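quick one
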Amino acid sequence: MSNNGAVSGYIDANLDRFREELFEFLRIPSVSARSEHNDDTREAAEWLMQKMKHAGLETTLHETAGHPILVGEWRGAGSDAPTVLIYGHYDVQPPEPLDLWTSPAFEPEIRDGRIYARGSVDDKGQLYLHVKAIEAHLKANGRLPVNVVMLAEGEEEVGSENLMPFVEKHVDLLKTDAVVISDSTMFAPGMPSIGVSLRGLAYFEIRVRGAKSDLHSGSYGGAVANPATALARIIASFHDDDGHILIDGFYDDVVAAPEFVEQIRTLPFDEQEYIAEVGAPALVGEKGYTTYERLWIRPTCEVNGLLSGYTEEGAKTVLPAYAMAKVSCRRVPDQDPKKIEKLFQKHVEKVAPSGVTVEVLVLHGGKPWRARLEGSLYEAGARALRHAFGRDVIYAGEGGSIPIVSEFERVLGAPALLMGFGLPGENAHAPDEWMSVENFEKGTHASARLLEELGS
Ligand code: BES
Ligand code: MN
Ligand code: MN
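structure w/ manganese (II) ion:
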């Protein structure tokens, strides 16, 4: 039996260094979406590989058509002991708009117990705490209680396109009894949480073209179709006044999940607090559902970006030739990605006004996921989190997507534990992203304890 006191002692004695190392990681602008950051993204992979090696993992960098995938292994627990696969991503979202950051996105700074930087919580801080937990076991005890495979990718924020085939191709290397992921949020501060669902995604770009070039809006306006107006009509056709989605067949495969709804309704919800957190004047959403149901078990159709015509200072009288929208649909079990793509394309074709041409591109997608919550993995997770945070876990849904999770379960046949250490209001993907110092530290203890629990 290994000495857990030594492990948590090692963690406590090294927390300052762990945080400083995380700061180094955060200073590398590994923005996967931007090719001008390709070298930085590689640098983040190489930096992380060195740290995984230093922790004691035998680590290999696998080239892909995009950003590298890292696999770190420690298999000294023997073939009778279970294997745990820990997954996370070292890429981050673009930091723009830069002028809305209080301190620069890639110059981490602590204010009020929070580490502010792009990637702090999504996902560098949450990934790195597992590296440190592994280091603590191996330096304090010379061994881990279980076999560990750590898998880190650099394309999560752009759809994990190269990780999917990698997992299929390396089933033997990645073979595991459990998958552990920290890339989600806790229900509330101080309330350790296990994530029980993720929504899937189907992402589209709609391009609307009218005349062959921009035109004088006086000379031609009224006689020639306006692509911006046409696009607005298309977008407005997605919902009715009650927030239901009007795409034919969109809800056909949505599973009602009454047990999950019942459990969701036991969770406390403070509407005023939520309104204050998001800073919007009021909440809206699909009629007949509570806020958590809208976020966790109902699909959506959201405009992510809009582009058309003149948007600079002052007025310019112009009839635009082009309009574009980025639209994403969050999906829930059992909506099929291919089917939703077809239904969406058919709907846009059907409602497209005359006088313009409309093109729908499919950018990326991912499957939704729901935990079955049975077996020793979830019990071990609950015990580890209770140990680190001093209170019982909450089982909460997540509105976001991690497309690889359902693939892990399908291809590797192992259950996934979502043990997130983010918090509401963390500003992931937005300016002033932060992770709480306390959660980075308690998360490290929780991870170390989880390995212990899974080994016993
Ligand atoms: N960590 C998030 C996903 C997430 C957020 C899970 C909040 C649970 C709670 C992840 O990095 C992410 O942003 N995923 C993308 C999907 C991807 C295909 C671009 C997302 O949800 O938009
Ligand atoms: Mn993430
Ligand atoms: Mn993200």
